[in-house]
Amino acid sequence: MSFRVFILLTFIAISEVLFSAGYTLPLFGPRDTARGGASMVKSDDLTANINNPANIIKLKGINSFIGLAVINTSGTADYYDRDIENDVTMYKPISNSPDPFFNPTIAISDNFGVKKFNFSLAFHGPYAPDYNYDKKCSRGAPSCPNRYSLYESDITLANAQFTIAYQILKNLSFGIGLKLTYINFKYNLDLINSNDNELSLLTGPSKIGETDANLKFDVTDPINFNAILGLTYEINKYLSISATYQTPISVNADGTMDTKIYKDSKALTVNNTKIEGNKLNVKLELPHQFGLGFLFEIKNTFNIELDFNMELWSVHDKITITPKNVYAKYKAIGIEKSIKLKAISQKKNWKNTYNISLGGDIIFLNNTFILSLGAFYETGAIPDEYFDISIVDSDKLGVGIGFSYTWNFLTFNTSFAYVDFLPRDITSSEVHPGNALQSDYPSDFIVGNGKFDTDILVFSTGFTARF
């Protein structure tokens, strides 16, 4: 038995699910949510901090904003049973029903008497849904391959942002938002350990979880500096154009990994396997983001905006995982042995993605009441061969609706969006469970093949006060 392989594959299993924190929805703030993400040019409240910092220059006097978004995720995973390669059957659907995710935003702006400038301070987090698969997907449940991808995850991404906007010309403004990003990932999954070389893994003791070990890990990158830049140019009274760029984030997260060896996991308990030390470091890259937007408007009547965005997920070419003084200790023929773990690097092959958003406003009663509508389409980043449910990624369609009401110095915004992850039928996934005791994986145990469907509902509301 190779316990070196056991521990290395433990860390490989971590790398398979860790990057799901890179997934966020292309929506931010109630107006943006209502417009289907098409707010790069029109954003004229403090949500411009993230949509386009150049537009902070539009705000006069002291502005403050407080908002809250609620994201509710639901979905199913219906796995293919590849027990007999040419006899494809389906498992029972597994549901994903995490608790609603709450995303608050607080921001304030003022020019402090400096002409042609405006300044803003904001605290916000992008929409990053959690995952929680039903408990029938646990040990002893042969219809749940996902236990080797994910039981549940808890993702936190939060930003403190200082923005400076400058009016270069009467019709040209520039802005830069300097961000301090906090990132935390928590995951829970199982690792398989089987030395059943003659029989399929799906027909041996591993089928009911008798060779499993559980992994729980928690890693954090508390201080990560990055930036968003924006430019807005008003061509004439009807047409405007904007461009944005967000710098990539280099995640360098430290944390802990707790491994539980189940009492009936005989492949490990027979040799009194123990893991000492639990510190690790994870490094990976999040993408560059580029945006270009076009706005047509007749002031005080209506506007319509078309935005294009691209995210260079191809920079995510590998994940590096470095254990810190972690040892696997066990007995072999009565002799105690110890192995110190080394860093591993796992290659990825994610694709660049793009997003198209179309949205606008219908304005009533001299801007007192605004009805906003929008829709977007976004491509997925993960190829079929790298797919598993640690992140249910696919092409997405979203629609939004909302309204704004202004009374004196107060504006109330509320919106609702529905995001449909287009159903995905995966038959060529190459993602296997981590198996410590068998160097070659049997072709009939893939944890990423099946039919997957996910929907997300977003409710967003906020108040703006101007003084």
Q: Output the CATH class name.
A: Mainly Beta
Question: What fraction strand?
Answer: over 45%
Quickly give the structural class. Answer: mainly beta
Compute the number of strand runs: 24
Q: Specify the helix fraction band.
A: under 10%
Number of helices: 4
Ends: how far apart? 71 Å
The whole-number mean of residue pLDDT values reads: 81
Q: List the helices and strands in order.
A: HHHEEEEEEEEEEEHEEEEEEEEEEEEE
The tally of structural domains comes to 1
CATH architecture: Beta Barrel
Which blocks of ≥5 consecutive residues have pLDDT under 50?
Answer: 1-22, 83-87, 436-440
Sheet with the most strands, sense and barrel status: 14 strands, antiparallel, barrel
Radius of gyration: 25 Å
Notes on the protein architecture:
- This protein is mainly beta and 467 residues long.
- The chain has a single domain (3-466), classed as Beta Barrel (Porin), CATH 2.40.160.
- 6% of the residues lie in helices and 54% in strands.
- The chain contains four helices and 24 strands.
- The strands form two sheets. A 14-stranded antiparallel β-barrel has the order 1-4-5-7-8-9-10-14-15-20-21-22-23-24.
- β4 (101-110) and β5 form a beta hairpin.
- The radius of gyration is 25 Å and the shape is elongated.
- The termini are far apart.
- Residues 1-22, 83-87 and 436-440 have low confidence and may be disordered.
